[in-house]
Design goal:
The chain has about 280 residues and is mostly helical. It contains eleven helices and no strands.
C-alpha cells in the first residue's frame, strides 16, 4: 500500500481524487466525506492495480482511464523475490521445471562467468522481457553507469511460485550484507551512526543518512505506530479489512521474511552498540 500511494498514482490522478500531491491528508481522516471518497478510491483502484498492472503496461491506458495510470507495477512478495532469485544449482532447475525461460543470459552474466574486464550487465535482478524492477540508473539494457567492477545486478529467475526454500535462500543472501537497514527506522539517529561506521565515514558527514531527506515524507507520520502500521490501520478503519487480508495472504512469505530481517537487523544493531558504546 505504501508503494501504491507513493508512486503508483500519477499526478493527474492525485489532483483529481485528492487535490494534493501528498495524496492522503491525515487531518481529513476525521472527515466522513473525505474518508468515504478515500475508501471508494482504494476499493476500486487497488484491486485494479493488482490484477491489471502487467496487462495495462502493454497499452496506452492514460487516455482510457482519464489519467489514472499506475506507473509502478504490483508484484507480490517483491523483496523476497529480489533476494531469493535463482541463477544456478537445484534452485534454478526447479524454477525451469515450472516455467519456460531462456537461460542463456543468466549463464553469460552470472558473476562466476564474468572476467569483469569489460562488464556489460543488464541492470535488473529480474530476468524477463517485461521488466518490472526499477532498473539501476534508469537504464533498461545499457551497461551500468555507476563505475562498478562487475555487474550492478545479474539476471535471476524470481518469478513463479514461492515456498519456504525461497525464504531461507533470501535470509542467507541477506546475512551476507554488512548492514541491514529498515525503512521504518531510517530516521532514527542510531541508524545513521551505524551506517557511517560501516562505511568508515564521520558521523557528521554532509551526506550522512541523518542529514538527507527524512523517510515517510509523503504522508507525515506522527508516532511510531503510524510509521509501521499506517496503511494497515487505514484499511481497517475504512472497512477494507477484506482487501487487507487478501494482500497479507498473497504476501505472507514476504511478511515472514521481513520479520526475519528485523531479527537480523536488531542483532546487528545490538552488536554494534556493544562494540562502540553507543548511548544515543
Amino acid at each position: 500500500m505504501s508503494e501504491f500511494f507513493f508512486s503508483g498514482i500519477n499526478p493527474a490522478a492525485k489532483q483529481k481524487f485528492f487535490g494534493s500531491q501528498r495524496v492522503i491528508q491525515i487531518g481529513q481522516l476525521s472527515n466522513k466525506t473525505y474518508t468515504d471518497m478515500l475508501a471508494k478510491f482504494i476499493a476500486q483502484e487497488v484491486p485494479y492495480w493488482k490484477e491489471n498492472s502487467r496487462r495495462d503496461r502493454r497499452k496506452n491506458i492514460r487516455k482510457e482511464r482519464s489519467g489514472a495510470m499506475f506507473e509502478r507495477w504490483y508484484q507480490d512478495n517483491f523483496q523476497l523475490r529480489a533476494l531469493s532469485g535463482c541463477s544456478s544449482g537445484a534452485c534454478l532447475e526447479k524454477k525451469l521445471a515450472e516455467q519456460s525461460i531462456e537461460v542463456k543470459s543468466i549463464h553469460e552474466l552470472h558473476p562466476l562467468n564474468q572476467s569483469y574486464a569489460t562488464p556489460n550487465a543488464m541492470c535488473t535482478q529480474f530476468f524477463q522481457k517485461d521488466i518490472i524492477f526499477d532498473n539501476c540508473s534508469g537504464k533498461r539494457v545499457e551497461p551500468c553507469s555507476r563505475g562498478c567492477e562487475g555487474p550492478c545486478f545479474y539476471p535471476t529467475i524470481a518469478k513463479g511460485t514461492l515456498d519456504q526454500d525461497d525464504v531461507m535462500r533470501a535470509i542467507t543472501a541477506l546475512k551476507a550484507f554488512d548492514a541491514i537497514l529498515l525503512m521504518e527506522k531510517l530516521s532514527d539517529d542510531d541508524q545513521s551512526a551505524f551506517l557511517n561506521d560501516i562505511m568508515g565515514i564521520p558521523h557528521d558527514a554532509s551526506f550522512a543518512l541523518n542529514r538527507v531527506r527524512r523517510m515517510n515524507a509523503r504522508v507525515t507520520k506522527t508516532n511510531e505506530r503510524e510509521v509501521t502500521h499506517f496503511y494497515r490501520d487505514l484499511l481497517t478503519e475504512l472497512n477494507l479489512k477484506r482487501l487487507l487480508d487478501r494482500l497479507e495472504e498473497e504476501n505472507k512469505l514476504e511478511i515472514e521474511f521481513f520479520h526475519r530481517a528485523v531479527e537480523l537487523h536488531d542483532r546487528q544493531m545490538k552488536e554494534w552498540k556493544i562494540e562502540t558504546g553507543w548511548k544515543g
